[in-house]
Amino acid sequence: MRPSGRKTNVMRAVSLDRNVSKHAEGSCLVKFGDTHVLCTASLEERVPPWLRNGGKGWVTAEYGMLPRSTGGRMRREATSGKQGGRTLEIQRLIGRSLRAVVDLEALGERQITVDCDVIQADGGTRTAAITGAWIALHDCLKWMEERSMVKVERVLKDNVAAVSCGIFAAQPVIDLDYLEDSAAETDANFVMTGTGGIVEIQGTAEGVPFSQAQLLELMELAKNGIADLVALQKVTVSGPL
């Protein structure tokens, strides 16, 4: 039995709330159970120096956890003068995931930065961030389309979403919360597109290695979960801003 009482193939309740920021070109408050992440997309009419005059744009991401997003207050990374390795790894993952479904030439020489700020953490912050970041990116592009800057369907080639899976109490399970994540024998994150393409798989065993058969079980769970997330993304963006 999972601590939450969920079946092995059942995710936490997921919600995607759009247009939650007054100032950002695109925004989404994503909730995977008690994990809440605010994603905001900001447009800049410039690209990094190494991309200037190349005819391509750029999509990148930043990630951070607010001081009381966890049980005890975390020190802001800004006060230490540098970002931690985990933060850098996650924000690079989010950026890679978004760029996997973006036509950078169709974007033009512009940069979109998606900021993912964890308000409350209960496991799976990176997967929730990726799923919500796609909504924020979509709505930023929609904002641009309304101003005759781009066509959303030309820039955004597909959906992308992510979910965690793992082996907990010897059972493959989907969408681990903190209690499961902290005690899992295997923890993996899957990022996939709406058409089923694999963007990234991160998998780690704790103590006992996992088998190829177990990996395939986790992947099947992830595939089904991400299909549900993509369906929710599509319903969410089909309505008015």
TrEMBL record:
Q: Name the EC number(s).
A: 2.7.7.56
Exoribonuclease phosphorolytic domain residues: 11-140, 159-224
For phosphate, which residues are the binding ones? R86, G124, T125, R126
Q: What class of enzyme is it?
A: transferase
Q: What reaction is this protein's catalytic activity?
A: tRNA(n+1) + phosphate = tRNA(n) + a ribonucleoside 5'-diphosphate
The protein's job, in short, is:
Phosphorolytic 3'-5' exoribonuclease that plays an important role in tRNA 3'-end maturation. Removes nucleotide residues following the 3'-CCA terminus of tRNAs; can also add nucleotides to the ends of RNA molecules by using nucleoside diphosphates as substrates, but this may not be physiologically important. Probably plays a role in initiation of 16S rRNA degradation (leading to ribosome degradation) during starvation.
Subunit structure, interactors included = Homohexameric ring arranged as a trimer of dimers.
Q: What is this protein called?
A: Ribonuclease PH
Q: Which organism is it from?
A: Hoeflea ulvae
